[in-house]
Amino acid sequence: MARYDVRPAAAVFALVTLSACTSNGSAAGGAQARVVHTHPTASQSRTQAATSRGPAAAWPTYHGDNQRSGTSGAPALKAPLHRSWSKGLDGAVYAQPIVVGRLVITATEHNTVYALRPRTGHVVWRHHLGAPVPQSDLPCGNIDPSGITGTPTYDRATGSIFVVTETTGSHHTLRALNWRNGHVRWRRNLDILPNRERNAEQQRGGLLVSHGRVYVAFGGRFGDCGNYVGYVVGVPTDGTGRSLHYAVPTAREAGIWAAPGPVQDKTEGDLYVASGNGAETNGQYDGSDSVIRLSMKLSRTGFFAPATWQQDNQQDLDLGSSSPVINPVTMQVAIAGKRGTVYVLHDLKGVGKSVAKTLTGCASYGGAAFAGQLVVMPCSDGIRRLDVAGRASRWDWQVPGVAGSPVIAGRRVYALDQDNGDLVDINFGTGHVVTRIDVGPVSRFATPVPVGPRVYVGTLSGVVAVHGS
After folding, report:
1. Cα-based torsion angle of the residue sequence 27, 28, 29, 35 in order, rounded to the nearest 10 degrees
2. How many CA atoms does the CB half-sphere of 467 hold within 13 Å?
3. Does CATH number 2.60.40.420 belong to domain 19-467?
4. Which helix (H) or strand (E) holds 49?
């Protein structure tokens, strides 16, 4: 067993010990893993759970944890930065890579999942999970083809990696893969809403595992075409038993599409999501354009919508372009949507209620990162650091032009400049750009992964690993 023991440079960062185990029984490098499509019995699943516990994971889900903090215990990279390796894969990488044991797990829009060695990029195993859907077969959208878009997640208790594929006919399928070799343990159809058009749905948000279930959020495609509605599904991690779901109570739209997917409150365990534009009629609020709190059984227990929700819906200024951030000290919720207003909420009690503070200046797309009460938000004109402590929240600094979803490691912020294809290294305290390095074309929602001595970036052609001097 190899072990990384890394300590951040400031007290606001939690101590994180990153453990990793060598993969046994993996397919030979580059070999195609055998496909096994199964629906296990309850007894089989119990046996599997008892024998399949996997290794620790340094980065098991979007932004590293269920709170989507985006904060790593890894040290800052020393400038200047260099490429450790780059690996061309069979399609674009929109999902954030995850790190399980000594494997970097990466999924592509071609519906292939890869396990790569962190030091070299060597392919330990790869598994193609079906033909993706070409843009020509879809009513709208801007991803071509559409395969795996949402960030996978890992469950140590079962040793399973969960991914959602979109395959021919726009079938959305949750699959549980053995972390060692990529073999499919079971699969489950997620197109569960009646009278909806699955080709109008898109699974973009990161998956989340908690309390024996994997949670998956759905929205629409770029263009908001077709008859779809935003919803969340909860499926048992052993593949048996019934699924739970929550659907936004609107006639159409209200997609739950932000890249982080569901966010979990560490104290109470509730899930938070944000919905987009809905199809309200006769001026009646329809559950759209809001922050929604869900129980683990996916019952709505609270919501907040701006007082301007009708105008926001009409002008495509929905709140669901980013995910909520839960202040670990005060338990307040902060969120910014397309309008450019940041809401700091002390509870979710309805339309226009429980707003503690507002700020302007951040139309946000993607996932924020936070350390203590300092939040770095992905604003469309450049990331900003927000101090949510005290009575008056305030902006501390901004980095113009660097709009990608940020992560934090060792008093540094790492984010992507999509226009130039650069990974940018920023001083967390001052917002000063320390250095940058070209990693190639990336998607708007690409997010770096800082683990150990490297930062990993999914690009439109594969994965790039960056190390310091």
Report:
1. -40
2. 9
3. no
4. helix 42-51
